[in-house]
Amino acid sequence: MVQSTNNKAWFFVIPALLLLGFVAVFPLIMVMNYSFHEIFYQESKVWVGLEWYSEVLGSSRFWETFGRSLLFSTIILIVEIPLGMAIALSMPKKSVLVAVCLVSMSLPLLVPWNMIAMIWKVFLAMAVGSGWTLKAFPTWVAIVLMDVWHWTSLVVLLCYSSLTTIPTAFYRSAAIDGASRWNMFRYVELPKMRGVLLMAILLRFIDSFMVYAEPFGFNAGGPRSSTTFLAMELAQDVISYNYGPAAARSVIYFIIIVIVSWTFKKALAAHESRKQIE
To answer: What pTM was computed for the model?
Structure first.
């Protein structure tokens, strides 16, 4: 007897697909269209083909900001991922302190992005004065510290959520076998966290690679453009009504993010296949 498949449930997905098309697909198509035109105003566009792409990719300024953004993302991942794992591993699993720790970790994530730079500027002005904003290295250090304070909590919460799913019997078995703390981390805790760690790395890379509000509010890309990142270059084009170059930049950034996301998707798929084999 052949069973019929009922696909009526897909009708409930239609509103979500329409909303996704309205807020994501349609704007993307419009941006791609703008990237091939010289736009004087909305009703006056001149086809220029790949001219804006050639101009952006051939600009040394683009590669400088790309290098800064990549360096910033690398530093953020090197600091926040191990730090978030360490904090998650040190948090209690069962006690009244669990709620206190979780709330404390969540507080930085609740602060609005445009307020973070203001808070840290006031804090650093009280601690070390204002002369550090004239030098590139202290400004970089301050921006990295600001981002670590804001976003490490995300890594902590993701790692902690996976650690709480490890049965107590695993720890007892490891203790009976005389496993060291390192072996317990390597063979019990790290495999459980591997999936959420890949997700945390992807989220933090995307956020840090396209960071804008915090460094702009902090020192407006200074001093001497030493903290000007990709998203800030894009914002400058938009503010200057250079919609064609801005659209081309947006498409280039979108392609970079898609490539990175696809790479992480492959890594997650490989992780799932290894887990099924084990």
So the answer is: 0.84
